[in-house]
Design goal:
With 251 residues, the chain is α+β, with helices and mostly antiparallel strands. It is built from 7 helices and 13 strands. Strands 3, 4, 5, 6, 11 and 12 form a 6-stranded antiparallel β-sheet that branches. It is globular, with a radius of gyration of 18 Å. This is PPM-type phosphatase domain-containing protein. It comes from Trapa natans. One of its GO terms (molecular function) is protein serine/threonine phosphatase activity.
Length: 251
């Protein structure tokens, strides 16, 4: 696992605290109608928890920023950083690779979101962690699932290959089931850390936004996830309901 001192220093560098507990909630000071909540639950794997969440509002001058992220580590690799801009994704990836001897050989997918003054949302992602927004009850996916089969041409252009062996899931070099991620030093020549970025207006039609790792999306559709949570008033409770439903489906 990653060295705790290194994780602490990385968190301090970008100015954000850790989601030290498994759940949490908060609300905007600009709008009483906008709240957030998160809930982390460990899956069936035998290694330690690898996911990491950020959820907070932060004042920057006259602007309020809602900062939200889900990092889904793999190969016992925890990613604590939160750097959501296009350029910062590259910086984050570079720093993780430079510290690979301490942080481990694995990597992480990520989906990040910045809510600016409760009116504009900027979403970025690498890998298969996903962002979904609901407007008037209709789910809309904001992120892109970076799948090896979809990006096969780019992967092969970097001198790699996509294989379903072992198993039946397409993997880069037969190892990683996503085509974009942070870290993964041994595969880096064949992987991209370039994020997909999208902007979305937030208005009275917007009901909720879900950020989640693939653990949720492998067992339910975007619309099912929205339908499950849209009538749960407390954001943390909605996150918990989603996580517990996911665990129930995986049993």
């Amino acid at each position: 696992m990653a060295d705790k001192e290194i994780l602490h220093k990385m968190k301090e560098k970008v100015g954000f605290g850790s989601a030290s507990s498994d759940s949490g909630k908060g609300k905007s000071k600009m709008s009483n109608h906008i709240t957030h909540g998160f809930y982390l639950v460990k899956g069936k794997s035998f290694h330690a928890m690898e996911d990491y969440a950020v959820a907070q509002f932060k004042q920057l001058g006259n602007n309020e920023l809602g900062l939200f992220a889900i990092f889904d580590g793999h190969l016992s690799h925890e990613i604590p950083d939160y750097l959501p801009s296009h350029l910062a994704y590259r910086i984050t990836d570079t720093e993780i690779l430079e510290k690979a001897a301490d942080l481990g050989k694995g990597g992480s997918t990520a989906v990040t979101a910045i809510l600016i003054n409760c009116s504009k949302l900027v979403v970025a992602n690498v890998g298969d962690s996903r962002a979904v927004i609901s407007k008037r009850g209709v789910a809309k996916q904001l992120s892109v699932d970076h799948e090896p089969n979809v990006e096969r041409q780019s992967i092969e252009g970097r001198g790699s290959f996509v294989s379903r062996f072992p198993g039946d899931v397409p993997r880069v070099d037969g190892q990683l089931a996503v085509s974009r991620a942070f870290g993964d030093k041994s595969l880096k020549e064949h992987l991209s850390s370039e994020p997909h970025v999208v902007m979305e207006e937030i208005n009275d039609d917007t009901e909720l936004i879900i950020l989640a790792s693939d653990g949720l999306w492998t067992v339910m559709s975007n619309q099912e996830a929205v339908d499950l949570t849209k009538n749960v008033k407390d954001a943390r409770s909605a996150a918990k309901v989603s996580a517990e439903e996911t665990m129930g489906e995986q049993r």
